[in-house]
Amino acid sequence: MAVLIGGAVLSTQLDPSRQIAWQTWLAFVAGLGLYTLGQTQLRRWGPGKRQEEQLGQAIRGLDDRYKLYAFLSSSLPDYILVSPAGVQVLIARTDGGQISCIRDKWKSSGSRLMSLFGPGLGNPTADAARALQKLRALLTERNFQDVPTSSVIVFTNPKAQLRVEGASSTITRIKELKDVLRRMAGKGTNVALTSARIREIQRMFDERMQAAHSWR
User: Fold this and answer.
1) What three-state secondary structure class fits 45?
2) pLDDT tens digits, residue range 188-213?
3) Using CA atoms, how far apart are residues 167 and 182, in angstroms rounded to an integer?
4) Same domain, 183 and 211
5) Quick one: 147 and 109 in the same domain?
6) pLDDT for position 49
7) Dihedral angle at the C-alpha atoms of 159, 115, 164, 125, nearest 10 degrees?
8) Are residues 16 and 78 both part of a single domain?
9) Same domain, 17 and 97
10) What range does the domain containing 69 cover?
């Protein structure tokens, strides 16, 4: 915002009969770039945006085959869940109101003007795809490439009203998350991972978690 304001102030100092100087255009472009980056980081790190506590509370009551990991590394997705269904990326959103995802195209009832002053909905599907790519790279590196992976987009705001048609990710509200995970896990012989295999994967992420804590 400071760079944008600086560019605006600089433009008022110029002779009106002359073209706007390149320094002014550079300030506007740099300011918009920094602002976009800031909104992305605010969605991730801003007050009330970190969602590990809400996600942890939502899956309480599930057995020890389910384990949530948060912010293990900048090279990994923010929220990773190891479960009988495999390894899942959880994409958390705090948006409320009417939200629709039609064939991976997202729309929100939120005001465009208000989105200028806070992080907007963005494209959770694209975020999920990038997160899965990071996760699969790690699993392949550790010889877990046969482990199923998937993504779940979770809206933690109780006022969120969802309309979903043709999404490539599972989309749910947080109060339904536990039931969604149970359905994804299946029963009996349909369960993707055995308990022994789950423990192997959890052990790998536990090591990453310990390394992250020791670095901090």
Assistant:
1) helix
2) 778 999 999 999 999 999 999 988 76
3) 19
4) yes
5) yes
6) 57
7) -120
8) no
9) no
10) 52-215
3-state secondary structure of 24: helix
Given the DSSP bridges, would you call strands 86-93 and 79-83 parallel, antiparallel or unpaired? antiparallel
Number of domains in the chain: 2
| Tokens representing residue 204 in the block | 């790998």
Q: Where are the beta strands (DSSP E) in the chain?
A: 67-70, 79-83, 86-93, 97-102, 105-108, 149-155, 160-165, 170-173
Pairing of strands 149-155, 170-173: parallel
- Kindly state whether residues 31 and 72 are assigned to the same domain: no
- Sorted by sequence, the CB contacts under 8 Å of residue 46 that are 6+ apart come out as 119
Q: Which of 12, 137, 26, 16 is nearest to 87 (CA)?
A: 137
Q: Are residues 117 and 10 in the same domain?
A: no
Buried b (16+ CB within 10 A) or exposed e, 132-152: bebbbebbeeeebeebebbbb
* CA–CA dist 4, 9 (Å, integer): 9
Distance of alpha carbon 79 from the chain centroid: 8
Instruction: Read off the pLDDT of residues 60-102 as tens digits, 9 standing for 90 and up.
Output: 999 999 999 999 998 999 999 999 999 999 999 999 999 999 9
Residues in the chain: 216
Higher pLDDT, 211 or 32: 211
- Whether 114 and 138 share a structural domain: yes
- In this structure, are 70 and 145 located in the same domain? yes
pLDDT, mean of residues 151-161? 96
Please tell me the pTM assigned to this model.
0.76
